[in-house]
């Protein structure tokens, strides 16, 4: 899984230096044993992060995947549901606020 993740990183950053695979493998082990994640879920979420405009530059290792797991899941689920953060529409021509004000 560590080597697969590095291959994904190389698609984003071709000049990325080879990581400490033992450290990466340990982070993957921790996700499995302590966090109860399975390899499939790790790979699916890491692939999604690597394809996301924002997260692709921020999640480049198993340690960062583990650290940001909840945020990544929330954002992925929102994206899959078609939910986006929206700002209230601003009507620059609305003058209702001035009614009742004596000038």
How would you describe the overall organization of this protein?
There is one protein chain. The chain is mainly alpha-helical and 103 residues long. The protein has a domain at 2-9 and 19-81. The protein has helices at residues 2-12, 21-33, 39-51, 62-67, 69-81. 13% of the residues are buried. This is Replication protein.
Annotation, overall tally of beta strands: 0
Strand content: under 5%
- C-alpha-based Rg, rounded: 21 Å
The H/E string reads HHHHH
Number of helices, where a helix is a run of at least 4 consecutive DSSP H or I residues:
5
Portion of residues in helices? 40-55%
Low-confidence stretches: none
Alpha-beta content class: mainly alpha
The largest sheet is: none
Shape: elongated
Overall mean pLDDT stands at 90
Q: Give the termini separation.
A: 70 Å
